[in-house]
Design goal:
The chain is mainly beta. Helices cover 4% and strands 60% of the residues. It has one helix spanning 2-12; strands at residues 18-30, 38-51, 54-63, 73-80, 83-90, 106-115, 118-125, 132-139, 142-147, 155-162, 165-173, 178-188, 191-199, 224-234, 237-246, 249-258, 261-267, 274-282.
Length: 283
């Protein structure tokens, strides 16, 4: 598989191909106690070589300047006999961030096709005999996505939008218990409002690092995470406020997005409040 990917990358850099380079840089200033502020940085680079219907992607993530440069993800996307093929080392996305977001990077391959207008993807980790089946469908404005449909711990996401009102629901039955989550959002007078409820019964299956409220994987089994998000565009930038209850303790976060800068103040459970300023550059 690696030899195929490297050969494809070489082919994609020929004169007839297109090579795109894009990336994101994040620098974070964090206040200290007392006064010992810190600065941390993170750079993600993505190189994409394209020729005809084929793309080869190389991703170098979490570069800090003092780390060894390595590829985190390398994969090819192409068509084989009319089927969509993706193969190599890559992660996958689970849901929309209510329960889960990203899975680990593994060497795997996928074949995607449509059946009566519905999407079906067959996936297999390299060297593993078991094949997973993902299915997606859109019915009357409701999008349904089922990941690993043949397994008992299948992950189900339902997204619906009606006249500016959006609802997202996610659920997964694990070996321990079922986790459920729902969010509802709408815009009122130019203000975006979102309400979220996550019923956690197996915290080990909740990996919400990139989710609405950040990492909630330390939630006690049997507890619910409940909160809301309000955002509004103002003359000084986009202002966002978040309030959520986790493990019976309130959490607060305020953010201001102004140009390339993000300013935030967060108070989590029993910890001291933290002020941070992030420099975000996408190129």
């Amino acid at each position: 598989m690696k030899n195929i990917i490297l050969a494809s990358l070489f082919a994609a850099t020929t004169a007839s191909a297109v090579v795109d380079i894009k990336g994101t840089y994040e620098g974070t200033f964090t206040d200290g106690n007392p006064g010992a502020a810190t600065y941390a940085q993170d750079l993600d680079l993505t190189l994409v070589g394209s020729v005809n219907d084929t793309k080869v992607t190389v991703m170098m993530e979490n570069l800090t300047g003092d780390s060894v440069v390595k590829t985190n993800q390398v994969f090819i996307e192409t068509k084989i006999e009319g089927l969509n093929f993706k193969g190599g080392n890559f992660d996958t996305l689970n849901g929309t961030g209510l329960l889960q977001k990203k899975s680990a990077v593994v060497n795997q391959m996928e074949l995607g096709f449509d059946v009566a207008g519905n999407g079906v993807t067959l996936g297999q980790a390299s060297g593993v005999g078991k094949v997973t089946v993902d299915a997606s469908a859109s019915i009357a404005g409701v999008d349904v996505n089922v990941q690993n449909a043949s397994a008992s711990d299948r992950f189900i996401t339902v997204v619906a939008n009606w006249f500016g009102f959006g609802v997202t629901a996610e659920t997964q039955e694990t070996a321990v218990a079922r986790n459920n989550a729902v969010s509802a959002s709408m815009t009122v007078g130019g203000m975006g409002v979102t309400a979220v409820m996550v019923d956690v019964n197996d915290a080990t299956a909740v990996t919400q690092d990139d989710g609405v409220f950040g990492d909630i994987s330390d939630t006690v089994n049997g507890e619910s995470v409940v909160g809301g998000v309000v955002s509004v565009d103002s003359v000084v930038g986009k202002v966002t406020g978040k309030v959520w209850e986790k493990n019976s303790v309130n959490n607060y976060k305020g953010e201001l997005d102004r140009g390339v800068m993000n300013y935030s103040y967060e108070k989590n459970e029993a910890t001291d409040g933290i002020f941070a300023a992030k420099l975000n550059v996408t190129f």
